[in-house]
Write a structure and sequence with these properties.
This protein has about 350 residues and is α/β, with parallel strands linked by helices. About 35% of the residues lie in helices and about 20% in strands. The protein contains 11 helices and 14 strands. Strands 3-4-5-6-9-10-11-12-13-14 form a 10-stranded mixed sheet, sandwiched between helices. The chain is globular and about 70 Å long. The mean pLDDT is about 95. Bound molecules: S-adenosyl-L-homocysteine. S-adenosyl-L-homocysteine binds near residues 115, 159, 286 and 331.
């Protein structure tokens, strides 16, 4: 069955014509799905009974099923486990900040990038998510919270630029009129550095923020943490970041996960400052979230502050990511992984 929630308004108009319906029905349908977040065709009360029946018979209205929610007692962060129509499960996160509600979504079931410190990639890639499945994480969370979602970050499980076409369609449906209409400036896409698709994204004329997972200041070290660096070298990746800034005027965010004794020395900080100093950027330091399958440890507090100071002395914008939801299977992919592991044991 056709996945109707992944269709643009223009495509819906063509579908309505095909069904012998008036073109304006497409607008109504679009608003029901993406504005009013209806989960069933039968709730779309201003469509005729006949049309609703045709829709039910011929189209799939993707809806994620909430399997589990965990809410942090520390900061109100909630982690959600959703079941997809094909039975796979994914996770998403809601974070409450003073500037509003942020949702972090997954872009794939699993991941094939193999970053050494990341839990999402341990079991490899199952498949990319459909645009509707990315959207519905946000829709279900907004309904659950009863609050409008202000920011969306594509930083959950998966590599968004390894699911490129679906990502672009998702971004257009999310930020376009008639849907949630979230400002493009409030959307961030995080990548491990798939260079050709970073360049393609730069050419899409979107105003979203691009975050690059850097994690090391030399090609040698980056390769040991991120296998993708064997394919796309550091210089190439940084060139793609420069290109993104030139095309969009949007400042790049560099994510740098601090791993104790691996990438947190004074030398690392100096090298990083030299590497990104000429770029219009912002560095986000993330104390690594240890996963039990690997023996990486978090840098201690002094090393983290020291690293930050060194960057600041070089006039680099830097923040330390607040660790949210530490008490609820913190790191990316851990909630899904622990759920899958217990399912396997049954
Ligand atoms: N595939 C995208 C999105 C992944 S997750 C990317 O690579 O950017 C978002 C960020 O969290 C990435 O920077 C990723 O490297 C980082 N990350 C993953 N696992 C982590 C962990 N255990 N501790 C700290 N950061 C982690």
């Amino acid at each position: 069955m056709t996945d109707i929630k992944s269709m643009t308004l223009e495509e819906l108009q063509a579908e309505m014509e095909r069904l012998g319906e008036k073109k304006f029905r497409a607008g109504q349908l679009y608003t029901w799905m993406h504005g009013k977040l209806a989960d069933r065709f039968d709730n779309m009360t201003d469509l005729s009974r006949g049309l609703r029946e045709k829709l039910r018979e011929q189209y799939e209205l993707v809806r994620l099923e909430l399997v589990r929610v965990q809410t942090s007692a520390l900061d109100g962060t909630s982690k959600f486990l959703f079941r997809l129509p094909d039975g796979n499960v994914i996770e998403s996160v809601l974070m409450r900040y003073s500037h509003g509600v942020s949702v972090c979504i997954s872009s794939q079931v699993g991941c094939r990038m193999g970053c050494r410190f990341c839990a999402s990639t341990l079991d490899g890639l199952e498949r990319g998510l459909k645009p509707s499945e990315m959207l519905d994480q946000i829709y279900q969370i907004q309904k659950w919270a009863g609050e409008r979602v202000h920011n969306v970050v594509v930083m959950g499980t998966g590599e968004p630029l390894d699911n490129y076409d679906a990502l672009i369609r998702f971004l257009k449906l999310l930020t376009g009129e008639g849907g949630l209409h979230i400002s493009q400036r409030n959307v961030t896409v995080s990548t491990c550095g798939i260079v050709p698709n970073m360049r393609r994204l730069a050419d899409e004329k979107l105003q979203i923020t691009l975050a690059l997972s850097l994690h090391a200041s030399s090609q040698e070290k980056r390769r040991t943490l991120m296998p993708v660096a064997n394919k796309y070298g550091l210089e190439e990746v940084l060139d793609a970041c420069r290109y993104y800034f030139e095309r969009t005027g949007r400042r790049i965010t560099f994510e740098y996960s601090l791993v104790g004794g691996v990438n947190d020395s004074d030398e690392d900080a100096r090298e990083l400052a030299a590497l990104v100093g000429d770029l219009n950027c912002h560095v986000n330091l993330i104390p690594v979230n240890p996963i039990k399958e690997r023996d990486y440890v978090q840098s201690d507090r002094t090393a983290i502050l020291n690293f930050k100071n060194k960057l600041e002395k070089s006039k680099i914008n830097v923040t330390i990511r607040r660790e949210m939801g530490r008490d609820i299977d913190g790191a990316c992919g851990q909630l899904r992984k622990s759920y899958m592991d217990t399912e396997k044991e049954r």
